[in-house]
Amino acid sequence: MKTSVEAVTGRYLHVGIGGAEHRVYVEEAGAGVPLLCLHTAGADSRQFRGVLNDEAVTSRFRVIAFDLPWHGKSSPPAGWYETRYQLSAAAYQDTVLAVAGVLDLDRPVVMGCSIGGRLVLYLAARHPDRVGGVIGLQTGGHVEPYYDTQWLNRPDVHGGLVCAGIVSGLIGPSAPGADRWETLWHYMQGGPGVFQGDLYFYKVDGDARGLLAEIDTARCPVFLLTGEFDYSCTPDDTLAIQRAVPGAHAQVMPGLGHFPMSEDYQRFRSHLLPVLDQVLAGRDERGVPA
Amino acid sequence: MSELPVGERLLALLRTDDALAARGQFVTATVLVESGAEQWLITITRGRVTAIAAGPFVMPAWTFALRSDEDAWQRFWSAPPVPGYHDLFALLRRKRLRIEGDLHPLMSNLLYFKDLLALPVEAR
Question: For an engineered disulfide with A128, which of A92, A135, A220, A262 has Cβ 3.0 to 4.6 Å away?
């Protein structure tokens, strides 16, 4: 078997978010325009292993992916066992801006998927001067609950297995087996109640439909990419955002599901690379430093 | 397009292989599958489908029920898969499937049941 060492490096940041100190795990690779990546609910930054290892991206972008607090190798805050984890829209924005601040990123391009794809709408609407553009993967304004999320966190049901079972059908049916099951493995490794707590943002607190009129794509360009097999954030949900946000670019990705960067990176990159070209061209035109 | 009737499609569940049966080793349940006016009772013993009975039933007893219609089941089992119909939860999201009864065996063995109910896809 061929051996190799990836160019990806990992570090821990200590950062105050919402009055609590957090130890946050961050991976990065490459140099150039900062590209800050936000993982889906109940998962972690390993979802971006394809982007982090793609020279066509890392030759032009400093790709950064971090684990949200409570996820992956980021710790929950001290005293976590006395609280219930619920991700609010405010805390999520604070977290992303805090991480970008500690890393001293100058108007990063933020690429988020699912809850991250929702969050970039908040960044575009509320913090257009702090980001240099957003790429929403599987972005919708809102999702009506269609199953009871209490099943995700109860002692008599295996949390890892049920979380993976919930999301398994969101992966495109033709995704390579290794990447399908790696994506599900991330879900199987989530802490108790973490996926459920993220869905509080996705289905309750993070309704972004009212924000859309505030988004000015001349100040913050918006690119949306959505896999056709996603029934959580459907292509129709994304196209509704495009209609509501003048100047937003949107594309439906055939064959892909809810985790494009993790389930089938080769298929995804054929959609991502042209968007990254547009992002760079737009930054030059607007005079944002590369 | 020649589509096997739902009842014939369900016969594929009897071909539970050893690997799938092992993943469902803690599952012993009776599942009612409904397609419009038709019903079947699927008996599962330690992960293996041991009987499929076709209705109508006078007093059916079951652990949980999956209620949908012919059109949705056919799309669910179609190859190549149809976006929005390719998973039990996709049907739920579209309000084309109702799940009733004791959901604990289903939710605690969700990957198993998804793979079991997908067996008819390969039967075509």
Answer: A220
Greatest alpha-carbon pair distance for chain A in Å reads 56
Q: Does A228 touch chain B (CB under 8 A)?
A: yes
Residue of A156, A164, A231 lying closest to B90 (CB–CB): A231
**Alpha helices for chain B (secondary structure H):** 6-10, 18-23, 70-76, 88-93, 104-107, 110-117, 119-122
- Residues of chain A contacting B92 with CB distance shorter than 8 Å: 146-147
* ipTM for this prediction: 0.94
The architecture that CATH gives domain A9-286 is 3-Layer(aba) Sandwich (3.40)
Looking up residue B108, the CATH number of its domain turns out to be 3.30.1050.10
On the CB side of A91, how many CA atoms lie within 13 Å of its CA?
17
- Phi/psi at A23 (5° precision): -105, 115
For residue A256, the 8-state DSSP code is: -
In A67-157, the DSSP E strands lie at 109-113, 134-137
The domain in which residue B114 lies consists of 6-119
For A165, which of B81, B103, B111 is closest by C-beta distance? B111
Report the side by side order of strands in the sheet with B29-35.
B48-54, B38-45, B29-35, B64-68, B98-101
CA distance B116 to chain A (A): 13
**Contact yes or no for A69/A208 (Cβ under 8 A):** no
Closest residue of chain A to B76, computed from CA coordinates: A169
> Residue A137: what are its φ and ψ, rounded to 5°?
-100, 130
Identity of the residue in A157, A164, A173 whose CB atom sits nearest the CB atom of B108: A157
Residue A155 pLDDT: 97
Query: Judging by DSSP bridges, how do beta strands B98-101 and A134-137 pair with one another?
Result: unpaired
| Span A128-157, pLDDT tens digits | 999 999 999 999 999 989 999 999 999 999
The pLDDT-based confidence of A209 (bands split at 50, 70, 90) is very high
What is this structure's pTM? 0.96
User: How many structural domains does chain B have?
Assistant: 1
**Interface A-B: count of C-beta contacts within 8 A:** 56
